[in-house]
Amino acid sequence: xxxxxxxxxxxxxxxxxxxYLTMLRLGxxxxxxxxESGLHPDDVTRAAMFLEGRGLIxxxxxxVWDIVPPETAMPRRAAELEARARSTRSTANELGALWRASRxxxxxxxxxxxxxxxxxxxxxxxxxxxxxxxxxxxxxxxDASPAALRLLLEQDRPISRPKVPSSxxxxxxxxxxxxxxxxxxxxxxxxxxxxxxxxxxxxxFSGLVVDDSAALVDLSRHDARADGSFVTRRxxxxxxxxxxxxxxxxxxxxxxxxxxxxxxxxxxxxxxxRDRRVLSLLATGATDQQIARSLSVSTRTVERRxxxxxxxxxAATRFQAGVQAARRDWI
Length: 331
Hints:
Arc Repressor Mutant, subunit A, 3 domains, 8-stranded mixed sheet, two-stranded antiparallel ribbon, 10 strands, 14% strand
């Protein structure tokens, strides 16, 4: 049999398991009996110390051990391993911060509770990491940044968390995002799943707040390397970003699902589906060009439909047409 010093880590655990089973069969194991089974005396002594440390056996006398009843020892050992696993998971963020700090410019100041992000990839990964820790709610606001576009268009990785219901996820998006193919459909799908989606205009940057305990600022629209973006767990900036989100949400226009609805209980909707989508986008302040891009039609077609809809609703402005349609429950 290989000596203890020649074993790799996995083999060492196998060795301890094998030794423990042999001790169980012996009832009150002794060094002499274990040596007779083919083990080296020094290996027995050293391995027994590990088993004692794990609470599986106790020393009765020199070279003689008692077995702790497995019904007691094994659950206690499992609880210790679970506690260690929880501790390891809880320190992951702190260890990540230390690792990122080691990669930073040593001449740059470091602030406790603030982790700098240095690429769009880091912003995206940090967003997924933060939302994965959410227990109560997720709030985000997104301008037309490279990181925001990736997060919104990566269909297989939604910004969500199984423990957080869809109604506890709120998102404000800048109307400028509608110029990108597929964005409107993506946002409608999120709204249809129960998430609270609102559309604003002129968001200065993207941000994320998770459970009022952590926040992220994404500056990738202002710098191709996302330089200056950061994650913070300091209470004051987290609270400030939460207040900024709430102001943006309150000033924005809710985006609802544009699936067919009726106003009189009949099966016939009052508008064509395309007109419903046009009105929904008008209510958010989208331009004709943004609507045309989102619906894959020409700007001229949108202009004609908007004029017809405004006349039919008796609306003097585009925004008023959207409001009138919402009041009639058309959108």
